[in-house]
Design a protein that fits this description.
The structure holds two protein chains of two kinds. Chain A is of the alpha/beta class. Chain A has 13 helices and 13 strands. The N and C termini of chain A lie far apart (50 Å). The chains are: A alpha/beta, B alpha/beta.
Chain lengths: 407, 472
């Protein structure tokens, strides 16, 4: 991988995110876990994983809770010999607790990790979502982010009795929901809670705003039922390609997750994504997506992957690294020249996180490639984003003053 | 945990009390004007209250919900504390820093989807090791609906029918996983055994659900259900569905009547006489001596209802500005301009016949010689639900509730955040323990165990309960 030309260079954030679900990202990870199949739902297991990620020096953890494959539906792999597990990569998947609540649970246990749940925008109520995410920002002291998803799953639609949404409408649902949340987060100005004893007013009503959003599908009145979150606006992450270029240019997302079929193609994909963004330095950060299987305890990475794949083949749309810690360090050194950060999806959390924290993160840090981890820093601060004034405030402009959590 | 194979036909007092704490977040009862008043939103306030309650062996930590910011004469209401976190998000965080206390989330049946809400409550239940509860509330107005895709669609008369279908669907979702559904070992065919999770379908007038439930049961089987409705329909709903009633009847005689009524309704619903616990909302103003407690009460009331709150309270019923009236003078002599009070200040204000009420109140204030401020203070003081006195005095009073079985405990709303439980836990709890009416340790690690509730009997165990045809 080469060094990017100046206009394609990232802003040098050097962020490492860790996907922190279940026993790992490989669907068969629970089979090789030391803690037993049911432990993926155990809060003590979650507590241990979160603390290990923070202690390893990751900047953020992401959480996701897609639905399970439907055991009530006939499984074609069992009846059709022409099909194999290959066609059903998720039939081995373990259940997951709600992503946003796991992030909330992790909040009081941590001080530096940004906590980023992946939350669907299509089959959720934007008003609830906005309140839940703002609440996550409060319980984490400003370390919350939102990874936007747009479900096209028929099962998700049936669960709430709605028609399946596909194609361009997914992009629209995501953008609409982000817009509602962003407006609701601004609907209380920072200093709306005044506690003015002489006039008997707890709130300054002039600093509360109806958002009156009306899009093609629904309307939301506002104001929010929770004051402005500590960060003002939570950083919003979205998979590159979900939102339209217009929505991205308008600031819907603060970071885009970029995938490529192989590690070698990541640089080109990052460059192409950056080139497609509006000129100027204020575009979203780019975060590369990477699956990781590492050599561990005398077992090569390829052997470990083969063992896991014997149960269920791991299919994912992401580039995959299979090798030693030293080789991964070199790859990440290259990728971080093109990306503001990398999200790692470890095949197996226990084993791969141990190798990452032992071999990879210390060396990347020694090379000066990683952002420092600062206790109590907000996620916006990690991303180098100023804390914006509410759009409804008179003379609203970005400001970097300390977050005005209510006091 | 015991299985309720033989529901009790007669109510027997347990002789014990439980305490819960209700961190209200939106109300006039929370004092924000004192130097000791802390943040209503910072997590430290929630942690402090929950951990203090747990030190006092409280059974439950309770959070409310209102899905639209309260208004006063068409603008957000300025005078009371307002703005609170999502209940389940805050409780999931508290699950990480508490070990025994129950975590009760108020959640609305009208503006949630059953599959989504049941999944989130299951999550809270699993994250907390079986300590989650759901306080079921209903809303029926377009004013709140303006914040939601679904809008305001429900007639007032339909709200319990709708809520009950919702709760039944949630229960079926929580019942869907067989024991042993999760792989026993690494060599099992798949993580969730094929056929071990029953699909839940419901088709109704307002929503339909077709879902394969995503989570197994918790250590307490499923979340405990709280309910607060006080109308005959609300009481019957609770008698059929709820584990705990968050009641509005704290006075001893009234509480005994309410107990009799609920036992009757519970038996009629085919459940045991002990199956529904009762915990009235209450406020405690305590001190070392009775006299200090009375002085403290006067101080608390003056901070809860200032002159502006007194006028605003009447404006809500009159439907017009009354700024010209002296808070220390008589009630306004002009008539209300509205027929009925609106829902915008919360359910307690909703639907009063304004003119009739104004006449009644003017007569009452005149007879008692009360100014606007005195009158409103009396009206809003929750006098019925306030226990004022020395620690020993109040402990003696509460012991009588335990002896008679009038209630199973009290759900306390602290008037000060975050230190409002300190005197209760430090002084009242030991007095109750000395009298043998309060636990000296947690009975177990789940909320169901700590409330003395039986494990639910599984709905249609082993039977394919595939769909409910009732239309709601």
């Amino acid at each position: 991988m080469s060094t990017p030309p100046a206009q394609n260079a990232p802003r040098g954030h050097g962020l490492l995110l860790l996907e922190l679900d279940g026993a790992g990202s490989h669907p068969a990870a629970w089979r090789v876990s030391r803690t037993g199949p049911a432990s993926v739902l155990d809060p003590e297991h979650l507590r241990g994983a979160v603390l290990a990620a923070e202690s390893a020096g990751f900047h953020a953890a992401t959480f996701s809770d897609p639905g399970l494959p439907d055991p009530a539906l006939p499984d074609p792999a069992l009846s059709d010999p022409a099909l194999s597990d290959h066609d059903h990569p998720d039939r081995d998947a373990a259940a997951r607790l709600n992503a946003l609540q796991r992030a909330a649970f992790a909040s009081p246990l941590t001080r530096t990790l940004a906590l980023i749940p992946e939350v669907d925008t299509v089959y959720t109520e934007p008003f609830h979502l906005s309140t839940q995410l703002a609440s996550l920002d409060y319980v984490s002291g400003g370390r919350a982010g939102w990874l936007v998803a747009a479900s096209s799953s028929a099962a998700d639609a049936a669960a709430v009795g709605r028609d399946t949404v596909r194609g361009e409408r997914l992009s629209g649902e995501a953008a609409d929901s982000i817009e509602v949340s962003r407006r609701l987060w601004d609907s209380w100005e920072d200093d709306a809670v005044i506690r003015d004893v002489p006039t008997g007013r707890y709130l300054d009503v002039d600093k509360l705003h109806y958002i009156d959003v009306e899009n093609g599908s629904y309307s939301v009145k506002g104001p929010s039922i929770i004051p402005r979150p500590p960060q003002g606006q939570l950083p919003v992450l979205a998979p590159a390609g979900l939102l339209t270029p217009e929505a991205v240019a308008a600031g819907a997302a603060d970071a885009l997750l970029v995938s490529a079929p192989t590690p070698e193609l990541l640089a080109a994909e990052l460059a192409a994504t950056r080139a497609g963004l509006a000129a100027g330095g204020s575009g979203p950060a780019l975060i590369a997506e990477l699956d990781v299987v590492l050599e561990s305890r005398g077992q090569t990475a390829a052997e470990r992957l083969a063992e896991l794949n014997r149960h269920t083949v791991w299919q994912s749309p992401r580039a995959r690294f299979v090798g030693t810690g030293a080789e991964l360090t070199e790859l990440l050194t290259d990728v971080l020249a093109w990306a503001d950060g990398v999200r790692l999806h470890p095949a197996m959390l226990e084993t791969d996180l141990e190798e990452l924290s032992r071999l990879v993160l210390p060396e990347l840090r020694r090379r000066g490639l990683l952002a420092p981890t600062i206790p109590d820093a907000t996620f916006r601060e990690q991303l180098g984003l100023a804390r914006p004034a509410s759009r409804y405030a008179a003379g609203a402009t970005a400001t970097t003053t300390a977050p005005g959590t209510e006091n | 945990m015991s299985h309720s194979t033989h529901p009790a036909a007669e109510f027997t007092p347990s002789g014990q009390l439980q305490l819960g704490v209700f961190f209200q977040g939106v109300n006039s009862g929370t004092v924000w004007k004192s130097a000791e008043s802390g943040s209503q939103t910072d997590f430290e306030s929630f942690r402090r209250i929950a951990q203090t309650a747990e030190r006092g062996l409280f059974a439950a930590f309770f959070l409310g919900e209102g899905l639209r910011l309260r208004e006063h004469l068409g603008r957000p209401h300025a005078l009371d504390v307002a703005g609170r976190p999502d209940a389940q998000t805050a409780l999931a965080a508290l699950a990480a820093v508490t070990t025994n206390i129950g975590l009760v989330a108020t959640q609305n049946t009208t503006y949630n989807d059953p599959a989504d809400l049941a999944h989130r409550l299951s999550t809270l239940d699993l994250l907390s090791g079986g300590r989650a509860a759901w306080n079921i509330v209903t809303t029926d107005n377009a004013w709140t609906g303006a914040n939601f895709r679904r809008g305001g669609y429900l007639d007032h008369a339909d709200r319990y029918t709708h809520a009950e279908a919702f709760v039944e669907t949630a229960k079926r979702i929580w019942d869907a996983w067989d024991d042993g559904a999760i792989a026993a070992s690494a060599s099992s065919a798949r993580w969730s055994a094929e056929g071990a999770v029953r699909r839940v379908r419901h088709s109704g007038q307002h929503y339909s659900v077709d879902v394969t439930p995503r989570l197994p049961r918790s250590a307490q089987y499923r979340p405990v259900l709280f309910q607060a409705g006080d109308s005959p329909e609300g009481r019957d709903f609770a008698a059929r569905q709820a584990d705990v009633i968050f009641s509005a009847h704290p006075q001893l005689d009234d509480a005994l009547d309410f107990r009799r009524d609920i036992v009757e309704r519970t038996l009629r619903a085919g459940r045991g006489a002990q199956d529904v616990k009762i915990m009235p909302a209450s406020e405690f103003i305590l001190a070392a001596t009775p006299r200090e407690a009375l002085e403290k009460k006067a101080w608390v009331r003056s901070l809860q209802i200032g002159p502006q709150q007194a006028i605003a309270y009447l404006e809500q019923f009159w439907g017009r500005e009354l700024q010209g009236y002296d808070p220390d003078g008589p009630l306004p002599d002009i008539d209300p301009v509205v027929e009925e009070t609106s829902e915008t200040r919360g359910s307690g204000f909703h639907g009063a016949k304004a003119r009739q009420l104004a006449d009644q109140w003017r007569a009452e204030a005149k007879e008692k010689g009360l100014s606007i401020r005195q009158f409103v203070s009396a009206k809003t003081s929750r006098g019925d639900s306030t226990f004022t006195g020395s620690y020993t005095e109040v402990a003696d009073r509460l012991t009588e509730y335990a002896r008679t079985g009038a209630v199973d405990g009290f759900n306390i709303s602290p008037w000060l955040i975050p230190s409002g439980l300190d005197d209760i836990v430090n002084h009242l709890v030991p007095e109750l323990q000395e009298r043998g009416v309060y636990p000296t340790e947690y009975a177990g690690s789940t909320l169901r165990e700590n409330l003395g509730l039986a494990t639910p009997v599984r709905a249609g165990a082993g039977v394919e309960t595939d769909s409910v045809t009732a239309r709601v």
